[in-house]
Design brief:
320 residues; six-stranded mixed beta sheet; 8 helices; 16 strands; binds ligand DP6
């Protein structure tokens, strides 16, 4: 009746942006991500029929804002007739600032809840359930380089390469630590409804996925860099052209992009990607990580740096 799980966030290189079915939260496009090692969310779920309602404690503080989405996720994993739950969550990075905190949170919650309720531990089943809560969460059920494919009626997720087979490093430049202005769920719908670029985004995604998949299989860094930056900038262009416009970047985001461009000009193996927030994730060859870290650390407006290798799938952990 009690289980704890840990999950790492993942960073999409080929992005999920847009939904084909809002009620079931099915993505409009496939995506490819890398699961991180050093950042984590741990979720402990205790089922207790005696509780009057679900309870959530985040990093030691009771939280009611996030609870409805978590409760809905528990309903999907355990059935609506389930016992009430106490959820304890711990996270070692800023929540809701475009660092994929919902991905690791819902992946960990799904794994912990399934174990606490003696439900299936099949990653494919859990990925589908986690994806209903947050599309990107489905990818954190898998390790390393992960592809999420749209199938006729659902999603299918798999690891393309294990982290040890091509160990890259991610340096995250935090440029602001507050919550994001518009949540990604709402921003995606605004994009679908109002952006003139949305339909070409959907059309071109299979091509970008193919190039990235090939680059990962060939361990071709330059190829992965080019398609990832292109895909990221396309996603942000859709947002910029939405009405109202959605701009997640700040001045430091732009400065970080320039820093990455300067490093590339010096022959450093690095590329950038950004999600629904102002942070810049610089993906680099491990031998260049120190140089990338130093350059981003010296960039105006960067308030904090985080570094991570590529990590494992969501999993149960023992908690007394
Ligand atoms: C920009 O998974 O947070 O990070 O399914 O609505 O919860 P919901 O969206 P979410 O969106 C992630 C968007 C992204 C790109 C990505 O991770 O693929």
């Amino acid at each position: 009746m009690r289980a704890a799980a840990i999950a790492q966030p993942n960073i999409a290189l080929i992005k999920y942006w847009g939904k084909r079915d809002v009620d079931r939260n099915l993505p409009a496009v496939g995506s490819i991500s890398i699961t991180l090692r050093e950042l984590f969310t741990e979720m402990c779920v205790q089922l207790d029929a005696g509780l009057p309602h679900d309870m959530l404690v985040v990093n030691g503080t009771p939280d009611t804002a996030l609870l409805p989405r978590l409760s809905a996720c528990l309903d999907r994993v355990l059935g609506a007739e389930r016992s009430r739950a106490r959820i304890d969550s711990r996270c070692n990075f800023p929540i809701a600032a475009g660092l994929a905190s919902s991905a690791s949170a819902f992946a960990a919650l799904t794994v912990a809840a399934a174990a606490a309720g003696n439900k299936s531990s099949d990653p494919a089943v859990l990925a589908s359930l986690a994806g209903r809560a947050s599309g990107s969460a489905a990818r954190s059920l898998y390790s390393g380089y992960v592809e999420l494919e749209n199938t006729a009626d659902d999603i299918a997720v798999c690891t393309l390469r294990d982290p040890g087979e091509w160990p890259l490093t991610v340096v995250v430049a935090i440029t602001a630590s507050g919550p994001k202005s518009v949540g990604s769920t709402r921003a995606m719908e605004l994009s679908r409804q109002t952006s003139p670029f949305y339909s070409s985004w959907i059309e071109q995604q299979p091509h970008d996925l193919g190039v990235a998949r090939e680059a990962i299989m060939q361990r071709d860094f330059a190829k992965l860099a080019a398609v990832s930056e292109h895909n990221c900038l396309k996603m942000h262009s859709i947002m910029w052209a939405s009405r109202p416009p959605i701009v997640y970047w700040n001045a430091a985001t732009m400065d970080c992009l320039q820093t990455v461009r300067d490093l590339q000009a010096q022959g450093v193996g690095v590329f950038f990607t950004m999600d629904a927030g102002p942070q810049v994730k610089a993906v680099c060859l491990p031998e260049h990580a120190q140089q990338v870290r130093a350059a981003l650390g010296a960039t105006a407006g960067v308030v904090e740096l985080m570094e991570s290798g590529l990590g494992d799938a969501a999993r149960l952990v023992n908690r007394a």
